[in-house]
Amino acid sequence: MGRNEIRLRRQRTTARGIDRFRNYNTVLQRYEQTQRLKKVVKVFGFFVVILIVIMIIIFLSRWENSSERTNSLETSKVVVATAHEKVTM
Amino acid sequence: MSEDEIRQEEAVISEAKKDPKAFGVLYEKYFDRIYFYLLRQTDNEELAGDLCAQTFVNALNNLKRYELRGVPFSAWLYKIASNEVNKHFRKNKGKKVFSIEEVRIKELVAQSDDSWDEELIQRLIEFMKDLPLDMLQVLELRFYEDRDFKEIAYILDITESGAKMRTYRALDKLRKNFRLKVKYDG
Predict the structure, then answer these.
(1) Least Cα separation, residue A43 to chain B (angstroms)
(2) What's the gap in Å between the CA of A39 and the closest CA on chain B?
(3) Number of neighbouring beta carbons within 10 Å of residue B44
(4) Which residues contact B147 (CB under 8 A, 6 or more apart)?
(5) Of B152, B154, B113, B157, whose CA–CA distance to B170 is shortest?
(6) pTM of the prediction?
(7) Which of A7, A59, B97, B157 lies deepest, with the highest CB count within 10 Å?
(8) Which chain B residues are closer than 8 Å to A30 by Cβ?
(9) Over the stretch A28-51, which tens digit does the pLDDT of each residue have?
(10) ipTM confidence
(11) In contact, B74 and B30? CB cutoff 8 Å
(12) Which residues contact B123 (CB under 8 A, 6 or more apart)?
């Protein structure tokens, strides 16, 4: 067995019979289909990006809120502790 | 291709970038060549027809990105067609087929010491079976499609000197193995 498959054609290939494959309208239709698909993918991708950005914003705002809450809690603890210290002194 | 023809083709391409219907002219012009190129590489009319349609669809899809690079527009189509065939055989894990017309072999090779008979054709086919794929591709584009080395280099993504070297090596092998005079030296 060789590396390639070589087939010998005894007859010269002619243009006869080729016309059943020649159809520019089909090519145009397939092209329009792929263009439509590309558009759908683009719009979908756009929405995904927007969704990711919104999620990041929500995550960041929640994180900010929670860190603010813990900060204020710690500050109040410190205030209470210093007040307690002053009283005991 | 004359300068005038190239200019006309360029005008059609820029028109087709705006309106895909204008591409129909190029489709009609190159359909036969691309179809036969694909038929030689598949030996299957239905498959060649399908790959040919896909080649033109891909060409339309990427037409906006097409720019002149010193090779005719047809070379770009050959490149897309070649990629389509490779993709098909990769996907189906099949062996690449080269369908050769007997008449073209006879045209290419002039008789010398050996008489031109069935046995010689069979030996030639056996020899070609063992040629590296890149050499076969270059030979096919050079002798069956009449592409020049610059175009072959562009189609196969190799350098021009690489295309020349592969052709000469393949021809040297042919001459040594068969004591044949190949009707080509340029």
Answers:
(1) 18
(2) 13
(3) 14
(4) B75, B78, B141, B155
(5) B152
(6) 0.78
(7) B97
(8) 53-54, 57
(9) 999 999 999 999 999 999 999 999
(10) 0.75
(11) yes
(12) B178
